[in-house]
Amino acid sequence: LQAPGLDASEAPLDTVDERTYQGWKYYNLNCARCHGEDVSGTTIAPHLIMSLEPGGPAADDSSCLQTVCAGRVDKGMPAWCTLGMTPADIDTIYAYVKGRSDAKLHPGRPARRSQ
């Protein structure tokens, strides 16, 4: 299995492009406290790996952007765009979470592909 944006001839397993690596950092900074380390879910918030699967509530990038930007205030999730997160930031988080959802990334910190 390979991470998004990776040519198998140039890096080991779970080495990702800059966008996906930045998403891992933003996810851990902003999302992991509720959605769990490694996107595994908690008693507070759902397992995002399943949320991004086909038919899930955030199955594509536009659904994910809408959910994260507007939040789910009734369920305790803040509207991240009002807190300063940009659509570009959310796009990087989507890249990381989608890599986990598609089983292209294993739990833990991915390696960053050198430029």
Can you tag this structure with a few keywords?
40% helix, mainly alpha, 2 strands, single chain, 115 residues
Whole-number average pLDDT? 88
Described by strand count, sense and barrel closure, the largest sheet is: 2 strands, parallel
Cα-based radius of gyration, to the nearest Å: 14 Å
* Helical stretch tally: 5
Series of secondary-structure elements, N-terminal to C-terminal: EHHHHHE
Unreliable parts = none
**DSSP strand content:** under 5%
Structure description:
Helices cover 40% and strands 3% of the residues. It is mainly alpha-helical. The chain has a two-stranded parallel ribbon with strand order 1-2. The two termini are 21 Å apart.
Describe the protein's topology:
Layout: E1 15-16, H1 18-30, H2 32-35, H3 48-51, H4 61-70, H5 87-101, E2 111-112
Parallel strand pairs: 1-2
What can be said about this structure in brief?
The protein is mainly alpha-helical and 115 residues long. The chain is built from five helices and two strands.
